[in-house]
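Input for the complex:
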Amino acid sequence: MLEIVDLACIRGDRRLFSGLNFSLMPGSLLYIKGHNGSGKTTLLRTICGLFLAEDGEIRWNDKNVRSLCEDYNKEVLYLGHHNGIKYDLTGYENLQISATLDGDDVDEDKILYALAKMGLAGFEDLPTQVLSQGQKRRVALARLLINSSKLWILDEPFTALDVAAVDLLQSVIAEHVANGGMVILTTHQEVALTAGQVQTLQLGD
Amino acid sequence: MLEIVDLACIRGDRRLFSGLNFSLMPGSLLYIKGHNGSGKTTLLRTICGLFLAEDGEIRWNDKNVRSLCEDYNKEVLYLGHHNGIKYDLTGYENLQISATLDGDDVDEDKILYALAKMGLAGFEDLPTQVLSQGQKRRVALARLLINSSKLWILDEPFTALDVAAVDLLQSVIAEHVANGGMVILTTHQEVALTAGQVQTLQLGD
Amino acid sequence: MSINWFKFSSPATFYPLAGKLIPIFGVLTALIGIFGLYWGFFQTPDVLTDQKQYYRIIFIHVPAAWMSMWLYVIVVAWSLIGLIFNARLAYMIAAAVAPTGAIMTVLALFTGAVWGKTSWGTWWDWDPRMTSELILLFIYVGYMALRSAIEDNRRSDRASAVLALVGLVCIPVIFWSVNCPDPNQCAALHQSSSMSGIESNILFAMLTMTVSFWMYCFLVPLMRARNIILEREHDTAWVTEMLEVKK
Amino acid sequence: MFNIFRCIVMRDLTLAMRRKTDVLTTMFFFIIVVSLFPLGVGTEKETLRHIAPGVVWVAALLASMLALERLFASDYSDGTLEQMLLTPQPLTVLVLGKVLAHWLLTGLPLVLIAPLVGLQYHLSIESTGVMMLALLIGTPVLSLIGAIGAALTLGLRGGGILLSLLILPLYIPILIYGSGAVAASAIPGSELQAYFSLLAAFLLMALIFSPLATAAGLRISVE
Amino acid sequence: MFNIFRCIVMRDLTLAMRRKTDVLTTMFFFIIVVSLFPLGVGTEKETLRHIAPGVVWVAALLASMLALERLFASDYSDGTLEQMLLTPQPLTVLVLGKVLAHWLLTGLPLVLIAPLVGLQYHLSIESTGVMMLALLIGTPVLSLIGAIGAALTLGLRGGGILLSLLILPLYIPILIYGSGAVAASAIPGSELQAYFSLLAAFLLMALIFSPLATAAGLRISVE
Ligand code: HEM
Ligand SMILES: Nc1ncnc2c1ncn2[C@@H]1O[C@H](COP(=O)(O)OP(=O)(O)OP(=O)(O)O)[C@@H](O)[C@H]1O
Ligand SMILES: Nc1ncnc2c1ncn2[C@@H]1O[C@H](COP(=O)(O)OP(=O)(O)OP(=O)(O)O)[C@@H](O)[C@H]1O
Ligand SMILES: [Mg+2]
Ligand SMILES: [Mg+2]
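Predicted:
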């Protein structure tokens, strides 16, 4: 279980939010809303530990994440505005390296399957440099299929994706939640997923 | 009037499209559809002259654009996946420089008005570095309001924008078209604009 | 009685405190400085071996050289406090001290060069002590360059603190290597200080000037720290309140 | 036209001023490199005086080249460069503006700091003067030639070092005549005018050809 | 743990191999800088032999420093660096892996190319051998120290030249003892062991402290 207690964040000299409290149970999805510049990205980066909060605490299964360090990293997967893939490596190599670093033991078939499922069959062995904006995003998202983390933190995962890919990603997220995972996501696009019964958190006014 | 005659583009060793023909009259909008990697970005960059087509011709008012050179540049405004703004300069300075380079003579009020209209009142004098993803995009889009080009070429202009900004941008585009301008755009998001009576071009299958 | 240190570690309480200290240090700097200069110019011999009058540059040169080194240690100390306690004020003080340190280094180099011209007939030589001072200047410049290259205050505070610490580990090694370029002869090298056998009047003037320099090095960083605080906290409640009261 | 030119120069100067360090870093790099040599070579006066012209010019080459990398790189990565290509202005004017701003920020400081180096290496006053003049004529050529390389290596991984491979060889004539002038000035009665005429001729040639080549390079790299 | 280390090293080596030039550029940069000096200084045998150790080491410093810029930069800009910070692996191991790969690509080639430089500067065979050994121990220290600077200047405008300001002064001990060893080797009967012990001690110290400082720097910069 993830608990956010009295969190406050400052960027530059603007206080983005303070006294933020919420908790997230296994099997649930949190949709963070807010206009441009309301602090969504900052909140997500704070939760996964890339940004240091000004005040407050983030707790994972009742322990402060700062004391958990690498154990917490194992439970979290973050996908931000950047794709986080090397453009000089192929999609296959990218996934393989990130799996090794994540400490997951995945075999070749699983990676090929993940790429194929993201609609990249035939593109596995091209350096991702030559892929289009949306295809690069798909490579990054294929990580979701081979990773064993509990908590997914997705910052506008639907950008650059075409309609088919948006649908696919929604089903992947829904499945993860159904299997007891947790998801925190932001998006400005109206998708079916966020229209349903999900927790929402509104940042800004 | 913009005419595309028998256009063919190759990237790497994939032929993206060939024998592409269409024309665009003043006062109309062309919506280019296509799945990820179908060649939309490539087509747009070819039209505005950043990418050299393999074959075919692009004609502006019956003259080949290659012979028009800078006169054609004056008529075209391109906004791509990149925002094209300097992060060390403020929004105001960015707009002022791009207006000077575009050869437009705009005064201070007009720039401030454009920024305010894009919802950036109060952020004019911050280096754009510290703005959020969506706010940066808004600065880039504010150029549309102070530019006098006829043809707007917009590659996924709605990414990173929140709902209010998407609506605003749609009305800006609609107004430009109503005033006899031309717009070519791509987007994966379903917006009201593209659902109406517009020309569409489908790339890929 | 125990002092509540945490109270003073907040910019809001430090700001007025610094405001009160500044005039005190200002007066001390001036008084001690004038006295030291007076002593240096009128109570010391006119000629020291073959250096004539010019040796009196020592009253600026030596305090400046000492301060340039001390101030680096102070920068490191505040950076360390900042990193350990995540204290904003400590970083701000470190930021305020560094430019003064750099200025002291420049002053030491400049007075040293002038002195060298008058006594050795050359502006510059690659003597270990001079070289070390020059390297110290580079290190100060690097520190300040890094700090001002980073827009975000939090990042620039912490990044420059790490750099200062790295410098602390490296500087002794660097100075020692400059002093002893041939490791086979280092043991034999006798590091003689030119202070030994110095006339007591000269020594007294020099020490007085050093105290004056210390005061100056409290004064200016305090003033700079106040500016930094105002700049960074300009939209907090207490600054707005204070500015309104002033109006 | 002049309006546009000024706009570009001012833009780049403003950008540099925003980061105050940008202006000073090239200068300090130059000073540091120059100061490293005596530590490696030894500090005998005669040797130092002898190698001074070579060291100064090699350091100037390197300083100017290192700064070059930034000439177009940031404009490229944030997309402002492609916007410049799309403006209805002659690209050569934009390029010249950017090169001028670059020289003001990186070349001129080297000229101004040269006397300090003269002190460090025990050069005579005349030699120092000759060095300053040679740097004043030579450094703009470095910026102009370098711009071509910077345009061609834009966006390539390892651009910095690749750039140095492309342009350092082109810098050689400047190095030879620049340091030649300084070395000759130490010999009483030697004729220096030939050196300066040659440097000036290089400058003229670079002014004419480099903007064209740079503009072409930029178009290729952005595609 | 070793698995992770190998994965990172292999990843960076693969990336470099994809752009074949990457591997050779540092080496060529080194050769070019070393070859420029005789053009600026003149080609008398005695002078060259005298300045050789200093020139070689300054060139090695610069070459290693130039390549450093790329150590984390591309990982930072494409977001893979923040992903690395989020992996459940100790960051110091990842850093060490990256530094090792970097040294294999930029430090080792300098060691291998050193004999060529020895020929250019008329060094004796023993001196050349000493130079190679000194480079072999010294260049890893350069990479390790440089990594700290690279981490701290990540993503800053003007990073390359700023980086040089930060770390060139820290390279000074290596420069002094590296070139000192080579210079001493030219004097018959001189004792070299002290030089090498010192260099080895620096290496040890750098191995212990640098990964920690670099990891801290990375965390700060990515925020
Ligand atoms: C640019 C040139 C010079 C620099 C950078 C420089 C630097 C320094 C430094 C760092 C110190 C303090 C060292 C310590 O306290 O142990 C110092 C002290 C001193 N310097 Fe200089 N110096 C320069 C030139 C000169 C010259 C030319 C002279 C004399 C002819 C000189 C004479 C002294 C003396 C007498 C002291 C103080 C006594 C002592 O503590 O040993 N310096 N200088
Ligand atoms: N630099 C390049 N080198 C080689 N091939 C490329 C390059 N850039 C793009 N491609 C190829 O061209 C195809 C079309 O790319 P393009 O960016 O035009 O697609 P797109 O329609 O804009 O897609 P998206 O909706 O994802 O932005 C892609 O399949 C890609 O593989
Ligand atoms: N590096 C920075 N330095 C200073 N302020 C920053 C920085 N990055 C972001 N900010 C400020 O923090 C605020 C929140 O930014 P953030 O990126 O979290 O917004 P967001 O909700 O993700 O917006 P968007 O929907 O546009 O992505 C913005 O108003 C911005 O001005
Ligand atoms: Mg965001
Ligand atoms: Mg596209």
